Amino acid sequence: xxxxxxxxxxxxxxxxxxxxxxxxxxxxxxxxxxxxxxxxxxxxxxxxxxxxxxxxxxxxxxxxxxxxxxxxxxxxxxxxxxxxxxxxxxxxxxxxxxxxxxxxxxxxxxxxxxxxxxxxxxxxxxxxxxxxxxxxxxxxxxxxxxxxxxxxxxxxxxxxxxxxxxxxxxxxxxxxxxxxxxxxxxxxxxxxxxxxxxxxxxxxxxxxxxxxxxxxxxxxxxxxxxxxxxxxxxxxxxxxxxxxxxxxxxxxxxxxxxxxxxxxxxxxxxxxxxxxxxxxxxxxxxxxxxxxxxxxxxxxxxxxxxxxxxxxxxxxxxxxxxxxxxxxxxxxxxxxxxxxxxxxxxxxxxxxx
Length: 353
Prior knowledge:
The chain is an all-alpha fold. It is 50% helix and 0% strand. Helix 9 crosses helix 11.
């Protein structure tokens, strides 16, 4: 992003700001153990990864002032999402909102830069480790990958390789068709970020009549999630957070929408032939992909399917940590209490009618 986007002017109305804070800022390497940097690492992985943190914070503070005389529902959908991310950020770090509202513009920008360092540093670390790790997940254990892929060079990945090409092929296209394959490989057929690849589906099978079936439930996504959040070694073991894992270090006990979109984006990039994660890379179009996944997960019309999906993920990654989502034993005291409450609620509804 431009230098102006990294130094937003507090005098401008947040409604008139050019661009959204929920798009990636400049790449910066995290070199500090500052608590704000560490918090940015986790927030980027679990809530929102590709955003300009200084712009997010300055815009959010301005918007809080505007909301004294208006409602967030009066704003466009993209601004509403930006404000939700802002509120989640300030609420996730004790004392942050007070610090921002009491500080000068330079203080707000400095805090944003520290968190942005953390988010971009974590993203860079994960991109680097997944580049090598993903090769182990392309074939069933014990089966060779033919031809083999380099762990450090990505030029032979993407549509240049039979296996990665099949995984990255848009679900509505047929990779087995020779013309389609050649068109994707040559770049004649450009793939947008919102054309979701086959690897998102369980068993790598897509049913156009049931597009939710198996979506975001593939093995390669599970492996990627474990690699980043519960430690690389947990990919081959029982799904539990180790003391060295990012989930354990941050008290993470459930899979979030942001973390699922983040892993899907990282795995997609690791399969591609692109060597540098860049917002200007029109080949991978990673930002569009990331935002499109979040669009679905945040869509209120899809809330039932999304709730089922997130429960499915949490059971697989944190099977012992989400007691609120465990099934209740039949005929237990708790089950009887809930049955009684349901009956009373139903009786009250009947009386009301």
